[in-house]
């Protein structure tokens, strides 16, 4: 089981002439130590009527997230088996869906998720920085709200296996955050969304845009230079079409970089092709040239690598190219 983490609420492809410009983007905040940059998954658990989806929707509006809840997935991923086994199978499927979506955006999941062992399994599926949030409200308050009349129907036996009435809701011991959604003073929806704000703050990063056709030791020197200074790096991959001079597709280049820098603070983004970088005031970032490149690194050329000089790629890149069948390994 993943232990709850403590949160404090609180052409850059090396163009050989002229020297490359590196842009410091205006990201703020920090991720939990050891995690690379990425999108966040937040999973809300709580009784029906606790306010999970209300909070999730408000957070989505503020932070720009996608929301998965019973309403948003009903048309394509409905669950009609409310046995313990059926609920578990359904929730684990949603967790896998959320993980795939998180490659592209932050995802908020709002589901009762009543069983502690299932919550633990969900956290095992989700990325390491996923957060389990318990939206905590008493059964009495939830019954008083009962907007859909579900508790009343459960009390009469019309609805079987209803959480809190005829089916248990386990204490969420694996929750990282607990929100008091009882409606008490200082616990408005906006107040609770404020308590989640730190989860969506982004770390500062260095942006290196380029073609990366392919990634070679000159590029790696630039990236390592930033990593050695404790920087997080975003490699911007210019979305250029495949041609004789640009033989590697955008997808291949992205996966190449991800393979080379697996488990490091480097993320690969696909960006539109650019002809220039234009800026006004440099508010929150700086533009600077790498002027300390060693001559032997300065001499490395992607054109030379494409022409057959494979000595100028690292072992990890060579490993990727061979595995992809692009190079024969000789």
What percent strand?
5-15%
CATH superfamily of the largest domain: P-loop containing nucleotide triphosphate hydrolases
* CATH C-level name of the largest domain: Alpha Beta
pLDDT averaged residue by residue: 85
Question: Poorly predicted ranges (pLDDT <50, ≥5 residues)?
Answer: 1-37
Distance between the termini: 44 Å
Overall helicity: 25-40%
Largest sheet geometry: 5 strands, mixed
Number of domains: 2
- Write the CATH architecture name of the largest domain: 3-Layer(aba) Sandwich
Protein described:
The protein is of the alpha/beta class and 330 residues long. It folds into two domains: 38-200, Rossmann fold; 205-323, Rossmann fold (3-Layer(aba) Sandwich). The chain has twelve helices and ten strands. Helix 1 crosses helix 7 (189-196), helix 3 (84-101) packs parallel to helix 4 and helix 9 packs across helix 12. The longest helix has 18 residues, at 84-101. It is elongated, with a radius of gyration of 25 Å. The two termini are 44 Å apart.
In short:
The chain is an alpha/beta fold. It contains twelve helices and ten strands. It has two domains: about 40-200, Rossmann fold, CATH 3.40.50; about 205-325, Rossmann fold.
List the helices and strands and how they pair.
Blueprint: E1 21-25, E2 41-45, H1 52-63, E3 66-69, H2 70-73, H3 84-101, E4 107-110, H4 116-125, E5 131-136, H5 139-145, H6 150-155, E6 177-180, H7 189-196, E7 205-210, H8 217-228, E8 233-238, H9 250-260, E9 266-271, E10 287-289, H10 295-298, H11 302-306, H12 315-323
Parallel strand pairs: 2-4, 2-5, 3-4, 5-6, 7-8, 8-9
Antiparallel strand pairs: 1-7, 1-10
Helix pairs in contact: 1-7, 3-4, 9-12
